[in-house]
Queue: 3 jobs
Job 1
Amino acid sequence: MNGSFPSGGFGFGASNGSGNPLAGVWEAMDQLRTSFEQRSGGSRMARGDVRAAVISLLAERPMHGYQIITEIADRSGGAWKPSAGSVYPTLQQLADEGLITAEEQGGRKTYSLTDAGIAASEDSAEKPAPWETVGHRSAGQHAALPKAGMELAAATAQVARTGSPEQVQEAVAVLEDARRRLYAILAEG
């Protein structure tokens, strides 16, 4: 999603050639729903955060990749669950840098810090762990935002499906006002 919706206020008034002036609302609502679903499934963290999390966890005890993924998810309260596609390449990079070693145990590679890795973990010990910052962020008001957006999208779609032309115009005005007010909030801070 590029941050914009079809012109005409969430697609109201737009036509996709089907003859229905509200047809564009379905695409806009799908874009909004998809945007919030992507965000509510966990935060996407930067590669450096995955690296810091892996080093921090391995400073506590040796772990295999799946343990690292689940431990981050548990410690962030489910707000961040890194994918295997971000954890395993990070583990390989750390091994290439000589910060960790891998040992086969029970059919799985178990990773542990080398002396250089221990030194790296001590250098970052004063900083909060990456899962603490994401957990704090989503434990607050940010967790409510996707839910509110989905509820707004559902109400908008209901008006589009069942509203009279006058109700649709009133809904357009409400949504346009809400959009302006949201941008005003961002401008304040």
Note: Helices lie at 23-40, 47-60, 65-75, 84-96, 115-123, 130-139, 144-162, 165-188.
Job 2
Amino acid sequence: MEPFKNKISPDLVQCLGMHIERHLEGFDRESYEAVILAELSSLELKQRARLIADETARILPDPLDGKFHILRSVLHPLENEGVDRSSDEEGIRGWGMMPLGMIVADHGLEDFEKSFALLKEMTKRATAEFEVRPFLDKDQERALSIMTPWVNDPSVHVRRLVSEGTRPRLPWGMRLKQLVGDPTPTLPLLEALKDDPEEYVRRSVANHLNDIAKDHPDLVAEIAARWLKDADKDREKLVRHACRSLVKQGHPATLKAFGLNPPEIALNEPEVTTRTVQYGNSMDFQIEMKSTSSEPQNLVLDYLIHFRKANGTLSPKVFKWTKVKLAPGEAVTLSRKHPIRPITTRVYYGGTQAVSLRINGQDFGYSEFELVMPSVG
């Protein structure tokens, strides 16, 4: 897959230069582009956006109204299309909004009204989820008062910004320490958006709740229980995605919200059928499980692989497995193959590893296996 940094490309720089030239008298387009293009290829994504933002802000007129007038003028006339939108001869959108949004965040903190009005237009052409965060950090109450009416905006991108831009722990974004400590100011916004007609918005609400769950798991469990009452399929899907981390962790109140009670089962240790696993192959195991309950029970099964680290200790990683409904006294045999092969997010070390189970949040069993790494040289 092409690196994201290539989205901030020489073509984008030249396209932006073309549009600025149309609206800014006396603009030295050739010099502007040359300064940026001299460094662009050596930089990563955010560095590229920062370079363009700084050089563009330097050539834009003062005061703020002058800067914002040009920024608004270069925006693409088409809005509210799909997420992957490219700038063209009609205007700037998509990844081109990243450096332009930085300019708003850098220079507009003294004028919330004008800055949010421009960011609202920008988010329709990409997203302003990162750029609203400095405003939330400076004056959360004021920023939220501006964003709150946007929950009813006709633009799906604006409605999503309400949820995504206020996430306490947005990946790649500034951490909003106030909302990490107390997420309650955004809960009315999530409440208003939970049944949004667009999955794009509902997915953001789910991710926002997942952020909150990292610091306030009981609060999210309470919300999940309330939202699941008389929920349709869309809302249930939202809540399940929101609670994915809590379910993996076996958080009792969250499991209870989904009707998952402590399991009543008889279970042997996981039987590893590949006691020695060659790197690149799979670790295979199976379990035999029998219900000891007098009532039917729903079970969510995950498994943990306790991977060996460089220092020889083991570190567990949870993997989702399956759901089972057991009748009273019913017995089942289940098997699983887990490939152990190269991935970018893990370094493997040979030696003793282990597998265990997590069923409705409770841990069961522990069986070891040996991982054999290829010899070097």
Note: The first strand starts at residue 265 and ends at 267.
Job 3
Amino acid sequence: TGTCEAPFTSSGAHINHAEPKAPHGLLNPNGPDDGDLPNIYAGADGKVNAELFTTRARISAEGPGQWLWDQDGSAIIIHANADDHSTQPIGGAGDRVACAALSAS
């Protein structure tokens, strides 16, 4: 959902609307779920500059992937640790440390 109240659990789980739901992990042979994205790495100053692409989510009205502008909105979550992209449920990514609500405006 498009809410970001610390500790950022208000944003809910990954988008994963397919049935049956796919397991977590870009390296999981039975995955990935629709919300899986590659790891990003912050510099010593805590800043990140990253460009990511996925066909599993979209902001356009039509096309491939889960639509992010549904009734409850969406958010991007940053976890404290690197994701190993295979173990369940979150690949060892750790606590949610940052959140950004997505908006069409």
Note: The beta strands are 57-58, 66-67, 75-79, 96-101.
